[in-house]
Amino acid sequence: MESVQPPAGSQVSRVPAQRTPSEQLPPAPAAPAPQTPRRRMRTVLVVVAGVLALLSLGGVVTAYVWYNEASAPDRGTPDVAVVNYLQEALVSRDPNRAKLFTCEGAVPALDEFGAQIARREQELNVSFSINIENVTVSKTGPSDASVSAVIRRSALIDGIQQSLADTWRFDVRERNGWRVCGGMRVG
Fold first, then answer.
1. Alpha-carbon distance 137 to 175, whole Å?
2. How many whole angstroms separate alpha carbon 71 and alpha carbon 56?
3. 39 in helix, strand or coil?
4. What are the strands, taking DSSP E only, across the chain?
5. What count of Cα atoms within 13 Å lies in the side-chain half-sphere of residue 169?
6. What is the pLDDT of residues 46-81, one digit of tens each?
7. What gap in Å lies between CA 138 and CA 186, rounded to an integer?
8. Which of 63, 103, 122, 129 is positioned for an S-S bond with 181, CB 3.0–4.6 A?
9. In what side-by-side order are the strands of the sheet with 178-185?
10. Element (H, E) at 81
């Protein structure tokens, strides 16, 4: 048999094929390891926790703003400030809340009036119903006003409905909202 020569320039050799030992082979390119379900679950939990934290923080801020607006005393106009002051001082009888509507704390004339009402209730063993009526505002300057109001106290005494009314005038000033700075009985 005759040996056949490969054409010139061919890469075929006459040497029998030899295999390179496996330890001499270059390492196979590393395929990216598939992400394990545990790592995916951790990522999902972190994202969900972050969203819940943001929603909770937003809820807290919203609740704070709503509470602050709801609990802030309304001193938007002179008449509203006077009516709210009288409600706290004479109806609720809460001097601390009443001070929220004043310039410098108590209004002595009205405090004495409230004490007279309390004494009279004890003497007669009744509870007066207090109504604020006929509230009118007279502006005396850009940040000053005079507010007059009728304070009516009513009670059922010995089976007969009785009522007394007094007219009061209050000096009110704009100081971060309208505030009662003084008051006196005028009739």
1. 17
2. 22
3. helix
4. 129-141, 144-157, 160-174, 178-185
5. 7
6. 889 999 888 888 888 887 777 766 666 777 899 999
7. 15
8. 103
9. 129-141, 144-157, 160-174, 178-185
10. helix 78-86
